[in-house]
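note to self — DONT lose this again. spent like an hour looking for the file last time. sequence + predicted structure for the chain T wanted, 219 res
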Amino acid sequence: MREKISDKLKVHTRYKLTDGTLVPGVTTITGLRNKPALVKWGNNLGLQGIDITKYVDDKAEIGTLAHYLILCHLKNEKPILDDYSKNTIDKAENSFLHFLDWEKSKKIETILCERALISENYKFGGTLDWYGKINDVLTLLDFKTGSEIYPEYFYQISGYKILLAENQLEIPAEYRILSIPRTEEEKQTEKIKKNIDIEQEIFLSLLTVYWKEKSLNKE
């Protein structure tokens, strides 16, 4: 039976060290941080009588597909859309058009796209979205969907910075988060940082928490 493309997109990559040990991914590590803004957002939806589960599922599917369309474009691959409804495809393609508008004013040179990397030293893995040059500036770029750019997005991208360094890849000069709208209510936002040393310290602290909790669970 053919595996659905939509199912493949939802599967989390399993990261292993050279000795076969399973290690956490960057998003698992940053997921340890509490997100009070999301709790408030969820409460607001409930007060409006909106079924948050269905709302989140629908938005997540649009966001996942939009992300997939962007990566296919950057890798010069043809997307397979067989398993999606016309409504989801239309909304995701609208998000993709926002990305193309952003891209057209820039000189883009891809070095890595959707590349999984492992840190043997720190014992974690991650799949970065895009690493290359934007207008001749070496950049690490992560794509999100929605309007908000949360602090943990830069914690996440700092994890990718560690992975690049350990795999002998040049450290970027800029770190970008590009958040692309899924609906008319959302707006496209972008944030650029040149230094994420503090975010990297926070990421490594979260990684320490992850492994200490793992050790507690073994007791």
